[in-house]
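Re: export button greyed out
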Amino acid sequence: MRVTVSRKAHFNAAHRLYRREWSDERNQAVFGKCNNPNFHGHNYELIVSVTGEINPETGYVIDMKDLADIIFEEVEIAFDHKNLNLDVPDFENLIPTAENIVVVVWNKIRNRIDNSNDLEVTLYETPRNFVTFKG
Amino acid sequence: MRVTVSRKAHFNAAHRLYRREWSDERNQAVFGKCNNPNFHGHNYELIVSVTGEINPETGYVIDMKDLADIIFEEVEIAFDHKNLNLDVPDFENLIPTAENIVVVVWNKIRNRIDNSNDLEVTLYETPRNFVTFKG
Amino acid sequence: MRVTVSRKAHFNAAHRLYRREWSDERNQAVFGKCNNPNFHGHNYELIVSVTGEINPETGYVIDMKDLADIIFEEVEIAFDHKNLNLDVPDFENLIPTAENIVVVVWNKIRNRIDNSNDLEVTLYETPRNFVTFKG
Amino acid sequence: MRVTVSRKAHFNAAHRLYRREWSDERNQAVFGKCNNPNFHGHNYELIVSVTGEINPETGYVIDMKDLADIIFEEVEIAFDHKNLNLDVPDFENLIPTAENIVVVVWNKIRNRIDNSNDLEVTLYETPRNFVTFKG
Amino acid sequence: MRVTVSRKAHFNAAHRLYRREWSDERNQAVFGKCNNPNFHGHNYELIVSVTGEINPETGYVIDMKDLADIIFEEVEIAFDHKNLNLDVPDFENLIPTAENIVVVVWNKIRNRIDNSNDLEVTLYETPRNFVTFKG
Amino acid sequence: MRVTVSRKAHFNAAHRLYRREWSDERNQAVFGKCNNPNFHGHNYELIVSVTGEINPETGYVIDMKDLADIIFEEVEIAFDHKNLNLDVPDFENLIPTAENIVVVVWNKIRNRIDNSNDLEVTLYETPRNFVTFKG
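Workaround output, generated via the alternate export path:
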């Protein structure tokens, strides 16, 4: 009886997509307006999903409040109202595309979830663009 | 050519999370404000997903109207505008957490869906908390 | 240059619609399934809107964080995970219809907002039913 | 490190569900009000999801802008503001149920996506009815 | 103590925007792809808002169920799964633009609402285009 | 017969809230985490509403496509994927709070709308914070 428990959260951040070692022309060709040198930003919406057995005593797979706390401690404190390129060490050498952000978030939360549980993270960069990582 | 057909529905209900055999202190420690003795409530949103072959004559996996009727008969009549703890026999000895509710709903609908089809149910307790069960 | 600033919040609560002095038959005829004696519940969504002049120094009509705090202190603490009929004194002698709830919320928040500002409150009882009060 | 990248799009179209070789009675019995001879219509919402390895240079699985262009060229130009039965050759001999539309859309986009990537398409016919095809 | 009570509803319909007495060229210039001779369609979402005094006995301005029934009888039966141009007499000599539809809906519902109450109707033609009429 | 026509649009941008002439301490006290020196960002959602008479020939108050073009030319080109503080001259000496942004947007669009029509603009900074300006 494995059930998936999902919790939504969000953070607001600035970012810029570019590779330091590329020329301005190449960065512009690949990343277009996402390469604006002064940054742009998003309201990122996050769905964190934990799959595991229901504890027969509590009826919980994981207490939603605990899951919300883990997301707050691992992601919101680190990313919210930040510049992902300049303020977040995870992206010092990693382009903060939605794909790379979702893998970073998954790794941060994976450390906090029991090994017997599966983890999936979905990240909305805009209401129309989103990415999912299952490990 | 297996396609998944999904239908949304909803019901409004009251519930309380607690174990009769536990002390008030332990119930409060585990279930917090969800343990309010006078109950609280939610607008539950439900997504029922049936996966099967497309019938080449009708172009349907299952008629959405039939699926809506099954949800109405099995879930809405039983749960809508009810107190899950007091009015619904399924939860007489089962804590009505989102995880337990989604399993109960899955079982009720499983009986009404052709065996060759797969079934998945997602239940939103709030817009930010939801659970999924695939059997 | 009067601008309206709006903040969303939510609370989950149980309620029952009935008049103590009416017969069961009359309560059932008027309130139907909302009259379930064991209560039912909702995820109430709230939009609180304050209209006033922009402060030229801060660029704010009201700091959204302050507005969120006022809603938390006046409404969420009082109503969230509560039974409106049994746990909230405002509804001891007032039926907790959406219309009555929105007026109670408006009065609680009105006390905390500067007199030069206008106040409007919208309350969603379900995603399809909502009410608005402007004072 | 396979990540799923999803992009939403939409198109507005008219359609009618019926089989030419069936009697009016049988069409009415099976398709009900969806069989209106003068058609009805929907705002179809589409989610196209591509799963593949992150390119370590760009941080992209697929450029969202390229994915949006593929959807525009393959689906929006062909279906938007059209009558699916009369204006779209794919449905000349295929009933435009949500199930059949999602398979047609999947095939059109599959041709444009790299073979090493997986493809899933979800189509909302209404906010409460949707279908998914994974190939 | 005037409160506004709002109820959402929806209907799915086909339509075409054109003036019979205009040339094809002029219709195409003014209405563009909305002039497709074979029609296109939408999931129309409707919000009907009634403003009036709270009845001190019931706590209602208007019973939401009665309001839902009025919308069903006046609008859904007449418009749902219909071709607005061909199946709905109101649009025999009136172009079914969102603006014209919302005025027609307002008039149909106005007849059913007590004169002491105000009425406002909002109609979403798509999630991004909507119109409002207050009489 | 004045009807309001509304169109949604969006732009993604970075910003920082602070007054150059204030000390770091005062900026931090007033603007909190919105004062991050490296900026943060949002997916801004915009609703532009034009109220006027229905043109009896076209059934339009204003062609939604024209309104979408005006929003694109006046707002999206200027603000999308930009740093509001550094890239947008309107905010060279104006703090880009939601309140100030909505007034700037209103003024840009007011110039393009016929004088006989009324204009209202709503700006969502996040799904839970939004502002409205009517002139």
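Residues 2-133 of chain C form a domain with the Tetrahydropterin Synthase; Chain A fold (CATH 3.30.479.10). The button fix ships in the next patch.
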